[in-house]
Design goal:
By secondary structure, the protein is α/β, with parallel strands linked by helices. It is built from seven helices and five strands, in the order βαβαβαββαααα.
């Protein structure tokens, strides 16, 4: 990968955290934390993905997740835990959920998927911002000015590129869950 993204693996079972890190470090920059307090100490704006165990002594994964969100970190969070999901997960601000035991392939795939979703979300937001600017210019400027303006032409090219990228991503979505997950973070915060 040209751009090495940072992943933080958080699990109180040190051997398991180290194993997960070893599985991922060929693709991403990986750090480990062996409890909730250490995880919060290692959090930064550069951490793209957090793999978080729910059941840990001291600060639980649920509490760590709440703190990550409360501190405004924009990291994607995947709960990787032996805790079977229950209705309490509905209000939790994570991006995906894996129930242990987890294979290397599952872990690598979920990290890749969440990163792809994050990039997709970013493209959607940029696309709508640029489309809005384009529409505003088109409502205010005569056509002959738009046709001869290099910045406007670059804007049109970027909109077309983003539209193609978004269309390609949508066409690659295989299930309803893929589609829903891609749009999960686009919901406005309550």
């Amino acid at each position: 990968m040209s751009e090495m993204l940072e992943v933080l693996v958080v699990d109180d079972e040190a051997r398991l955290a180290d194993l997960f890190a070893a599985w991922l470090e060929t693709e991403w920059i990986v750090d480990t934390a062996y409890d909730g307090s250490e995880a919060l100490e290692k959090m930064s704006d550069t951490v793209e993905i957090v793999l978080l165990d729910r059941r840990m002594p001291g600060l639980s994964g649920d509490e760590v997740l709440a703190q990550i969100r409360a501190h405004g970190y924009d990291s994607r969070v995947v709960m990787v835990t032996a805790v079977d999901p229950d209705f309490d997960i509905i209000e939790m601000g994570f991006d995906d959920y894996l129930v242990k035991p987890v294979s290397k392939d599952e872990l690598v795939e979920i990290v890749s998927t969440v990163i792809d979703r994050s990039a997709y979300e970013s493209h959607i937001r940029e696309y709508y911002a640029l489309v809005s600017k384009k529409a505003l210019l088109e409502s205010e400027k005569p056509a002959h000015e738009l046709e001869t303006n290099d910045e406007y032409q670059q804007l049109c090219d970027r909109v077309a590129d983003l539209e193609a990228s978004i269309d390609e991503t949508v066409s690659e979505m295989r299930t309803h869950d893929d589609f829903v997950d891609a749009f999960q973070d686009l919901q406005p915060d309550n």
